[in-house]
UniProtKB/TrEMBL annotation:
Superkingdom as given in the UniProt entry: Bacteria
Stretch forming the signal peptide: none
Family named by the database record: Belongs to the AB hydrolase superfamily. AB hydrolase 2 family.
Organism expressing this protein natively: Paenibacillus alginolyticus
Entry GO MF terms: hydrolase activity
Pfam families recorded: Abhydrolase_2
Residue ranges occupied by any Phospholipase/carboxylesterase/thioesterase domain in the UniProt entry: 19-210
Alphabetical list of InterPro entries matching this protein: AB_hydrolase_fold, LYPA1-2/EST-like, PLipase/COase/thioEstase
Identification of the protein by name: Dienelactone hydrolase family protein
UniProt keyword annotations, A-Z: Hydrolase
Amino acid sequence: MYPAYKYDIQLPSHMDPEKKYPTIFTLHGKGSNEKNMFGLVAPVSDDFIIVSIRGNLILGAGYQYYELKSLGNPIREMFDQAIGQLEAFIHYATEKYPIDAAKRYLLGFSQGAILSMSLALTMGEQLKGIVALNGYVPDFVKTEYPLKSVNHISVFISHGEFDTVFPIRIGHETAAYFENLTSNLTFKTYPTDHGVSEENQQDFVNWLKKDADVHVEKE
């Protein structure tokens, strides 16, 4: 199989060739790229494999995974294709690299968060957990997709209180939706716009380490 996406992969610096590793697949925001995501997860790169996936559609100087009809309104056919291609890519990478299939995480910002949450709903327990930063779940995913149980998936959702792209109301609605589906939900808000603060990063880094049961030593 030839993957639909270009990607960067960062392997732990002191890998045990006999071991499989927990893995974070990162999904960037609209108009960004895969390199902009690595800084968010760099603190856990000694214990996780990091796979940073680049959107396959050019947008300005960056990339995206699908196009929009309007803000918050994905073009359905492109979104459906992205979901299928991303799931196939996760399986491709799991076969190619020493990835622990029982500890696969998605971490996405904005458009990447939208896809991470939608993939959790379609892949179910094939994922261990997701980190969704400033996103939402499209209504057609909730009502028309064949959804799987996320009761055993760990979910970290955060949202900026002053988000001018997706208002904070959307963050609360998204958290309430997942609260009905899983008992493993962490929801936090931060006094930011459409971005990720240092406190937000520290919180999800600690959450990831605890959830995957790895212990990253501080320098």
